[in-house]
Design brief:
With 436 residues, this protein is an alpha/beta fold. It contains 17 helices and eleven strands. Helix 11 packs across helix 13.
Length: 436
């Protein structure tokens, strides 16, 4: 089995500087010697056999279980060597790619059968982990989605704030509107909208942990009269909203439920409403979720190609006002998360254990690698029910972003919509500063 593994690696790795110490202690070299050295050691014959049979799952599992160690380099550098040699698809042999794709397609809808009960369990697997864990690597606002790096020198906090401005601008929010945040996380975006606009916000999540934190944050800021959070599946909502936003939730919907998702959006959105969908996507054609991610990180999750999304949008009767592709923004976000996680690794180990830390190291590194060297990206799709809801050009977006940025710097927005009500009639806790 070892000889077969070595032949397989030698066929794949033509570039780079990879060395492998097998379970019998023999060191083997692969590649042309270029680039940073990466040296792996496999500690058991069992791990070698597993890697031959299913490398995409067995390699991270071997690392998690201590059957594989790095003597030089790390997970990210290993994946860079692999992806440089296999290309964006991650497969070195097109015949093998077609065969593997056919097998993944045969079962992917079963893996993504996200009923309401199953969706709740899947969310609990990941998002109901200790909040202290997420505080180790996220920004202060607990944004667990792609940041927006307007400048390459931005800190993670600055880029996450820029992301919220960018999304708010695309919603073209007006006074006293109602906003729905589907998959609200720890409440950061909902609180941002309630804090900066004269609106009422409902955030829904399936995570008990996130709901508790978001509710506590709203109360601490005195915003509970303007924003509230519920543990509820979006499919169970019935009221209508002026604006709907969903950031980092669509990846958990699954291809079986795209029509249900957008049909529900069309029902929940008022006739002159606007929806902004922010999701991870792929440049390539439809595929299937990586076995490691599906098993250990995001059960039921799937990253769609835009070609899978748009038919469901069209059939729901929704109109696309704007599509933006964010290419390397998530790679930079994940770099920040990975570096912060590794800097706080001992604290994470105290919360969980060494196996968990190795699993999350592989998850964060593998995700960053996918956005740097494979076909992953993020997209933002702006949707309406009428084609005259929004201005004909995109100037209003830039205007709003600039106004919000000025306000965040301590200045008043360039233009504000003034509340016609006397202050005495305003609801308790409501603020009258609305960027346009």
């Amino acid at each position: 089995m070892t000889s077969f593994l070595l032949r397989l690696i030698r066929k794949i790795i033509r570039k780079g500087n990879l060395r492998l110490t097998t379970a019998n202690g023999v060191v083997h070299a692969f590649g042309d010697g270029s680039g940073a050295p990466v040296h792996l050691r496999i500690n058991s014959a069992r791990a070698e056999r597993s890697i031959v049979l299913n490398p995409s799952l067995a390699v991270p599992e071997a690392y998690m279980n201590g059957d594989l160690d790095f003597l030089e380099g790390d997970v990210l550098q290993l994946l860079q060597v692999v992806y440089v040699n296999t290309g964006p698809s991650g497969v070195f042999d097109q015949r093998l790619a077609r065969a593997a794709e056919s097998l993944r397609y045969a079962v992917r809808r079963v893996h993504q059968l996200n009923t309401t009960a199953r969706s709740r369990r899947n969310v609990q697997r990941h998002y109901d982990l200790s909040g202290e864990l997420y505080k180790l690597f996220l920004d202060k606002d607990m944004q667990y989605s792609c940041a927006y790096f307007e400048r390459p020198d931005m800190t993670l906090e600055e880029a996450q704030l820029a992301k919220k401005r960018h999304i708010a601008a695309k919603l073209q929010i007006k006074p006293r509107q109602t906003i729905l945040d589907i998959g609200c996380g720890w409440g950061g975006l909902a609180l941002y909208l309630a804090r900066n606009f004269d609106v009422d916000v409902l955030g829904v999540t399936l995570s008990t942990e996130q709901h508790a934190v978001a509710t506590e944050r709203a109360q601490a800021e005195g915003l509970e009269h303007r924003v509230h959070f519920e543990i509820k599946d979006y499919r169970h909502l019935s009221e209508r909203f002026d604006r709907i936003v969903s950031v980092g939730m669509f990846e958990h919907v699954g291809v079986n439920h795209y029509h249900t998702f957008f049909d529900k959006i069309a029902t929940l959105l008022k006739p002159d409403g606007v929806m902004l969908l922010h999701s991870i996507g792929r440049f390539g054609p439809p595929s299937a979720t990586a076995a490691f991610i599906r098993k250990y990180i995001f059960p039921g999750g799937y990253i769609p190609a835009i070609s899978e999304v748009m038919p469901a949008v069209e059939k729901a009767g929704l109109m696309t006002g704007d599509i933006e592709i964010l290419r390397l923004h998530y790679a930079e976000t994940l770099k920040n998360w990975r570096e912060r996680f590794m800097a706080n690794r001992d604290k994470a180990k105290a919360i969980y254990d060494e196996r968990f830390c190795r699993m999350w190291e592989f998850y964060l590194s593998g995700s960053e690698a996918a956005f740097r060297w494979q076909d992953m990206m993020n997209f933002q799709i702006q949707l309406t029910r009428r084609n005259d809801t929004l201005p004909m050009t995109r100037g209003y977006m830039e205007k709003c972003e600039k106004a919000l940025a000025l306000h965040e710097m301590g200045h008043q927005p360039v233009e504000t919509k003034v509340d016609p009500k006397p202050a005495a009639e305003a609801k308790p806790g409501r603020r009258r500063k609305v960027a346009d």
